[in-house]
Amino acid sequence: MDYNASFQISATGMAVEKLRLDVTAANLANIHSTAASADQLYRPQRVVSTEVPLNFAQQFGQLYARSGGAHIVDVAALSAPPRLVHEPGHPHADGQGFVSYPGINHTSEMVNLMSALRAYEANVVAMNAAKTMTARTLEIGGQA
Q1: Is the residue at 53 inside a domain?
Q2: Is the distance from CB of 72 to CB of 49 less than 8 angstroms?
Q3: Neighbours of 63 (CB within 10 A)
Q4: Which of 68, 30, 70, 81 shows the shortest CA–CA distance to 47?
Q5: Total domain count for the chain?
Q6: Pairing of strands 62-77, 98-101
Q7: Residue-wise pLDDT tens digits, 50-79
Q8: What pTM, to 2 d.p., does this model score?
Q9: Which of 35, 60, 62, 119 shows its CA 20 to 30 Å from the CA of 77?
Q10: By residue range, what is the domain housing residue 12?
């Protein structure tokens, strides 16, 4: 039996969720960032991922998974309009006294953060289950 596919599938899921966590943290860190011009303003980002199809193979008459999981395609900048706040004394204020802040939705980012955390934890549980199964198989083989 080959347990490597189980570990690899969980590892790809953990890599995607870790990047989602990093990108969400960057969005939250820049929620109050300003810039001298609107084209230099921080743009919120999202991770784009896709599936790696699950492939199967046969070994010793048994079917097992050979590969699968998730694949990071891109980290894409969102086209969210900036948040305008009236702060006439700010160094980056425009002629009318408005300062542009990134169009980051705090609530949405926090939901994304929690979702990434829970998905990462689920992948860790799946990997630990595969590790336990592998250990039990070795125990059975060692008793013969």
Answers
A1: yes
A2: yes
A3: 9
A4: 70
A5: 1
A6: unpaired
A7: 998 887 766 666 666 667 889 999 999 999
A8: 0.84
A9: 119
A10: 4-80+106-139
